[in-house]
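Recall that a protein's primary structure is simply its ordered list of amino acids. Everything else, from secondary elements to tertiary packing, is in principle encoded there. The following example makes that idea concrete.
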Amino acid sequence: MIAEDRVGTTQLEPVPEPKYWHLRTVLSEALDSEFSVGEVLPNERDLAARFGVARATLRQALEQLELEGRLQRRRGVGTTVAPPRVGVAVGTRRHVWPGTADDTWQPADCALAAPSAAVADSLGTGRDEPVHTVRRSLVTHGQPVAAELLYVPPAAVPGLTAIDAPSGTARARAVLRELQRGELERQESAVELGSAGAEDAKELDRLPGAPVLVVTTRYLAQGRTAALSVATYRADTCRLTFGDLGDVEIHHGPETRAS
């Protein structure tokens, strides 16, 4: 709430902590002391009765803990205690093409089709001009953690021929191999918070609308965009790192402990 004092300045009145946030803190402490990674939590009715709260309040607290990566909701299983976040390097000081030897992404498919208008504008291609769309996935410890769409204009892979493969994994590898023949000048990345659409949710084993981190990377060669990557990471699972020494953890104490 906002109030004005006698000299006319505006001050913020203290707001009590929301009930769901207090419950989130209590639940977080319970996860640390009573449950192990992968263990299924009791159902919402039992949890609400244990803590003496309405189920709506409980759902808010559970959703917050899921966003923080402490819990996972799994189809046919329920709500489980999540493992620690996986450190995923999304940028280093070295500029490298996707698909190089140390790249852990797995190509799954490739198609030649016109992309969305936003992607076409980013690539500098015509709205109706087909581009190679390579679909890749990132799996860590047997768990899908990210999905990527890599858009490559035909001009960036002039040596690619239909002989390599018309589609599928072989075609994806051929596009990546040909892309690496160019001289990469630099790459630029941006990160934003988003929500999983139907396709991403299915591929990442999440529910539609689950929080995700979207990393968009432009690969530039000869002064133009040679490839555009749109990678979607599970926000509950991944801790993105940047730079050669980016794998840093910060511990703030038990209430806001980095997972």
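Residues 1-8, 246-259 have pLDDT under 50 and may be disordered. The CA atoms of residues 63 and 71 lie 8 Å apart.
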